[in-house]
Design a protein that fits this description.
Elements: E1 3-7, E2 13-18, E3 33-35, E4 39-43, E5 52-58, H1 59-62, E6 70-75, E7 80-85, E8 89-95, E9 100-107, E10 115-120
Parallel strand pairs: 5-10
Antiparallel strand pairs: 1-5, 2-4, 2-7, 3-4, 6-9, 7-8, 9-10
């Protein structure tokens, strides 16, 4: 099922990382999703243009039925995944059973999505 919220992201970025934090990736050209072993940054709609719908849950429950834009492992030693915006404001949280979690991210637009789904496994 997952949990959802609408958020106005001040710099058009969402961060997905362990409860204890993570190393923020350096944005590069091309994709709007960047990652390190401990953090995934996802570009979204900037706050002055509106809110972004964010959903977090088990991948099998939130999978929209098309290929994810991101699919990789995330270090989760604290056994919780946090979705936050700058300046470190938590918007969603989910517990996970292991210290490494497969994270899949689906977006509804390649450059400025206003719908982001984060599936955990």
């Amino acid at each position: 099922m997952g949990v959802s919220t609408r958020v106005a992201a001040p710099n058009g970025l969402l961060f997905v990382n362990d409860l204890g934090g993570g190393t923020i990736p350096e944005p590069t050209g091309g994709s709007r999703i960047w990652s390190t072993q401990s953090c995934v940054a996802v570009g979204c709609k900037i706050d002055c243009e509106g809110e972004t719908q964010v959903t977090l849950g088990k991948a099998r429950e939130v999978d929209p039925g098309y290929e994810p834009s991101f699919d990789d492992a995330l270090e989760t030693p604290g056994r919780a995944v946090i979705v936050s915006i700058v300046p470190g404001e938590k918007v969603l949280e989910a517990t996970v059973p292991t210290s490494s979690t497969r994270v899949r991210v689906w977006v509804n637009h390649p450059s400025e999505p206003d719908g982001i789904i984060i599936g955990l496994e």
